[in-house]
Amino acid sequence: MSYYLLTEETVVEYVKRKLPAFTQGEFCCKEIGDGNLNYVFRVWREEGPSVIIKQAGDLSRLSKVAYSKDRARIEAEILTAQNAFAAGVVPELYFYDPEMNATAMEDLTGHTIMRKALMEGETFPRFADDITEFMVGMLLGTSDVGMNHAEKKARVKAAVNPELCGITERLIFTEPYLNLEGKNKVFEPNLEWVKKNLYEDERIRLEAAKCKMAFMNKAEALLHGDLHTGSIFVTEESTKVFDPEFGFYGPMGFDLGMLTANLMFAWARATCAYTGKSPRAQFVAWLEETIVEVVELFKRKFLSSFGEVVADPMLKSRGFAPWLLGELLADAAGVCGAELIRRTVGMAGVADLRTIEDEAGRVTAERICVTAGKQLMTYRFQSMSGDDYVEAMKLYR
Ligand code: SR1
Ligand code: MG
């Protein structure tokens, strides 16, 4: 069967053909994707089985830009690796269809997108534990710490993803500082402030350039590549990381940095323009604890699991694991800074900031993020603790 673009009219027939559990009965379907790159459908029957189908088209959905459909294969291979090294924290993969560039995976209905939940002031007691399990499992399992050197190189090659990495290089590490094509979307009342504090700051541009170089060259471990709160489904009892389409072998600190930045957006919103249902002080305290816990639990788990998975005798040298962790944390702080800056001034802003209705609240929330971003990026080699992240958020007055 050769490739065709799935629609709500054809996806049920496709699923019935591919999955035995779906052969009997009438199924409903809905296109649920709201991203730019792919088509995502849910197919289900009341009291019966359900599945998510994600298909890559020749053109991106919204911007109609041509991207290689091979990205679907890369994403399916990443999901396979995630199920091997972080089972339970990612959707199960049912199949990948190379002809159709389509993936079938577990339906996570019942979960909520974490960004939305945080904007409503919800808290998730399992989150820090689950997400650090995911990150540490993936980083150690797919790096030269836990994987045979030849297998790792073959996997690096198979996951090379120039198009999606190109988006990150442009959107995170270039455009926010240079605004070359005028694609930045700076909140008008902050234009002058951003000009003075970002565009005219040559030192931060230099640090961002160094972080960009690390992103482009450190093929250390398989990353999710876009681990923001919109890529995480949550309930009180469960955390599921999805949408690894930006994944590739990159610097080990990347996912941790992006994640912390996105928890910080929730903090900036809660502090300046809270719209949640729970008491604000309680929610802010939970966010601060969670940011600290994510960093500190990550460090503890990384060091304790390192000893369990390391095979290379040189990597067992005394002091190597803490050194590697130190490098990783510096990269993480740099990425956190870059993410804080780009989601505030760049073209792909976050709802946490961009939907703040009160002008003064949004002005302050955005300045908090850019100021914290600059601090963490500049002092990334000293930003080793969870408290450093919380303190960075409190710098702008
Ligand atoms: C064109 S895609 C824009 C952004 O959304 C994704 O989630 C990535 O973060 C990307 O940078
Ligand atoms: Mg996405």
Describe the SSE topology.
Blueprint: H1 11-18, E1 28-31, E2 38-44, E3 50-56, H2 70-85, E4 93-97, E5 102-105, E6 112-113, H3 114-119, H4 127-142, H5 149-158, H6 162-171, H7 175-178, H8 191-199, H9 202-217, E7 221-222, E8 232-234, E9 239-241, E10 249-250, H10 254-273, H11 280-309, H12 320-345, H13 351-354, H14 359-378, H15 386-393
Antiparallel strand pairs: 1-2, 2-3, 3-5, 4-5, 6-8, 7-10, 8-9
Bound molecules: 5-S-methyl-5-thio-alpha-D-ribofuranose and magnesium ion.
5-S-methyl-5-thio-alpha-D-ribofuranose is lined by residues 36, 167-168, 171, 226, 348.
On the 0 to 100 scale, the average pLDDT is 96
- Taking the alpha carbons of the first and last residues, their distance comes to 61 Å
Number of strands: 10
Radius of gyration: 21 Å
Order of adjacent strands in the largest pleated sheet: 1-2-3-5-4
Let me know the largest β-sheet.
5 strands, antiparallel
- The DSSP helix count reads 15
Given helix and strand content, the structural type is alpha+beta
The shape is: globular
Q: Which sequence of SSEs, written as H and E, runs from N to C?
A: HEEEHEEEHHHHHHHEEEEHHHHHH
Helical content band: 40-55%
What is the percentage of strand-forming residues? 5-15%
Regions with little confidence, pLDDT below 50 for 5+ residues: none
Bound molecules: 5-S-methyl-5-thio-alpha-D-ribofuranose, magnesium ion
